[in-house]
Amino acid sequence: MRPGPRLVPVLAALAAASLAVPLVPELGRVLAVLAAATLLSALTEAALLSRLKVSLERRGLVALDLDEEEEVGTTLWTSARRPVSLVIRQRWPALVAEGSSSARGVCLPGRAMEVSFRVRGIARGNEILEPAAVAATSWGLAERVLAAGSPGALAVLPNLRAVGRLHRQLNQIALRGLGNRTAPRRGKGQEFDRLREYQEGDDFRDIAWKATARHKKLIVQEYRIDRAQEILVCTDRGHRMAARAGRIARIDHAANAAVVFAYLANRIEDRMGLLSFAATVEPGVLPGRGAGHLRRVMSFATALSAEYVHTDYLALAVDLGRRLRHRTLVLVLTDLPLDEERAGELVRLARSLAAKHVAVFVVSSDPALEARARFLPADRAELARTLVARDLWWNREQVLRELRRLGAMVVETPPDRWGIEAINAYLEIKRRQVL
């Protein structure tokens, strides 16, 4: 129990008024009565609040999408027979950007009070959500602070909103083409889909002559993009992935990209697998598809965390050599190493994949390093920094050129666009029938 928000101002006002007692002696008795009444009211309110019970209800599991601002709703009730002013303060685990959130309102007798907090998840994981602290007062002269509710669970998951946005975009594309015939285009699929009647503009090479003779009208064969192809996403979890890119770490951007990519591959009916690597390779999720497979991918991506060790690209190359039996699209999410030893290992990884598989390297761009390399120095200190930056930038460009020379597709983009650019590269490979 503690003084309410109105008690100190009331007593301060009475103390200020007491300065006029020498001028108006009768005022002293009035002020004494008011002070006694105020203290008595405060004690009465404290006694009433000591029997007050506050109930708090929230979802059993508070699940947030990584790097998305969301509302967490809470419902409160009190046992009081009169309106009670409540101030609710919720402390958040380190997974959330906000250290704590507060809200206030008046809870009427027999009715629930709804409050919500705006929070943003900045790291994946699961944490205990401690009970909320509630400060309750009726008249404002006394205030009781108590814990409301029981401990809950908070989970920050890879960004499912991005998956929802992709789902809506794909549905819009499908509906936009409903009732339209897709024009023949270069690079169309090679997997047979169906037979249909010839329409003006169809390629004569697609005419099925046996079916035409049987039906006595022109029938063409339709093809679709090949499905059930193997895709393996390899996520780097070495020390460079622990660095922040925006509000969240690079490893979190990689987890988001893996989940979004898995959804699209499942939609296209390809078989997608996921693994992570640093000093060693963690097997992860075998290639597959379906709702159960997506749940396994989500669970593995949620548990991804960066380790403060060097990334061993040769260990990944050896593991992939044993693992992959068929031609596979290998998508590597990593941050480009600047030291010659690690960069050489990355090139050797690309060389080992080039002969049999399709390799795509999605690496983070470094606009700050590029800007420093292009900077015109004004003194010797700036000249030294510029020369170092140019050496690093030149080494970086050499590695990228070597990867492309070996036949790998290299996507250089900010980490927050890894998912989008990986999808674009994947669709381009499907369009060109490279896999």
Mean pLDDT: 85
Shape: elongated
Structural class: alpha/beta
Number of strands: 21
Low-confidence stretches: 174-187
Helix content: 25-40%
CATH topology of the largest domain: Rossmann fold
Number of helices: 11
Q: What is the radius of gyration?
A: 33 Å
Strand content: 25-35%
Report the CATH superfamily of the largest domain: von Willebrand factor, type A domain
Q: Number of domains in the coordinates?
A: 4
Largest sheet: 6 strands, mixed
The side-by-side strand order for the widest beta sheet comes to 18-17-14-19-20-21
CATH architecture group name of the largest domain: 3-Layer(aba) Sandwich
Instruction: Report how far apart the termini are.
Output: 70 Å
Specify the CATH class of the largest domain. Alpha Beta
What does this structure look like?
- With 435 residues, the chain is an alpha/beta fold.
- The protein has four domains: 2-50; 54-157, Immunoglobulins (Immunoglobulin-like, Sandwich), CATH 2.60.40; 190-224, no CATH class; 230-432, Rossmann fold (3-Layer(aba) Sandwich), CATH 3.40.50.
- Helix content is 38%, strand content 29%.
- The chain contains eleven helices and 21 strands.
- The chain has helices spanning 7-17, 26-50, 160-176, 209-215, 250-268, 291-302, 313-323, 340-354, 367-373, 380-405, 418-432, and strands spanning 2-3, 54-57, 61-65, 69-78, 84-91, 100-107, 113-120, 125-129, 132-137, 142-148, 152-157, 191-197, 219-224, 230-236, 244-245, 248-249, 271-277, 281-288, 328-334, 358-364, 409-413.
- Strands 18-17-14-19-20-21 form a six-stranded mixed β-sheet, sandwiched between helices.
- The longest helix has 26 residues, at 380-405.
- It is elongated, with a radius of gyration of 33 Å.
- The N and C termini lie far apart (70 Å).
